[in-house]
Design a protein that fits this description.
This protein has a domain of 121 residues: Serine Threonine Protein Phosphatase 5, Tetratricopeptide repeat, CATH 1.25.40.10. Helix content is 81%, strand content 0%. It is built from eleven helices and no strands. Helix 1 runs antiparallel to helix 2, helix 4 runs antiparallel to helix 5 and helix 7 runs antiparallel to helix 8. The protein is globular. The N and C termini lie far apart (48 Å).
């Protein structure tokens, strides 16, 4: 599948924290994908908009955005099943897992993330990203040891296979894994948590394109300073 130019621009806008611009561009992408009956592209655009709505929810705490994100994730899976888009089944379940996390439904998130890994079709590096998300869901569900193992394994997979993807993606996923570990271990293992926080800070400081991660890091760092 060839991503159309509107979709590419939307991805760039989202990573620059320009979410409303990204939404407008995604609408144009939908039209182009529909005109050429590119259902894989359409499903990917739905997942892209889902992620944009997720960021808007995290910024505003407005449940409307979480609901819209949920509907796009569900619609993506419907297209995958309707048009037998086998290589996208894993990413559809991954988005559903992310949305379940927004609603604090950790049991459902675990189920979706396991489905995402079972149906995964991509690089080993991105598989590490999927795995650390599963780890977070398990940890928040109360299965802390299992969750921590999945988190650490996911981080290792990202690091070991970083050469498979663009540096920006590897940095997004690796810094994200460190930040999740820092946040989750803050009370249970404070020394290790701070080590992960420092590791995330180094990655983010070295890559100016990590605009969203930089904003998230500021918020996380404040939490550590307030303890």
């Amino acid at each position: 599948m060839q991503t159309n130019s509107f979709h590419q621009q939307a991805e760039v806008a989202r990573e620059q924290d320009q979410h409303l611009k990204a939404l407008k561009l995604i609408e144009e992408a939908f039209l182009e994908y529909q005109q050429r009956q590119d259902y894989e592209g359409f499903a990917q655009a739905l997942q892209s908009r889902c992620l944009t709505y997720k960021h808007l929810f995290l910024l505003s705490s407005d449940q409307v955005f979480a609901t819209l994100a949920q509907k796009d994730a569900e619609a993506s899976l419907v297209l995958v099943e309707l048009h037998n888009l086998e290589t996208m089944r894993g990413s559809s379940y991954f988005r559903l897992g992310e949305i379940a996390m927004l609603f604090s439904d950790y049991s459902l998130a675990v189920d979706h993330y396991r489905q995402a890994l079972t149906n995964y079709a991509g690089t080993n590096c991105e598989k590490g990203d999927y795995r650390y998300h599963l780890g977070e869901a398990l940890y928040r569900l109360g299965k802390k040891e299992e969750g921590k193992r999945e988190l650490e394994q996911g981080l290792k997979e990202i690091q070991d296979y970083s050469q498979e993807v663009d540096d920006f993606l590897a940095h997004v996923w690796e810094s994200g894994a460190h930040m999740r570990l820092a946040k989750l271990l803050k009370d249970d293992e404070p020394i290790k948590a701070k080590q992960h926080l420092v590791a995330a800070q180094k990655i983010i400081a070295a890559d100016p394109k990590l605009i969203i991660r930089k904003r998230q890091l500021v918020f996380l760092t404040k939490k550590f300073k307030n303890t």
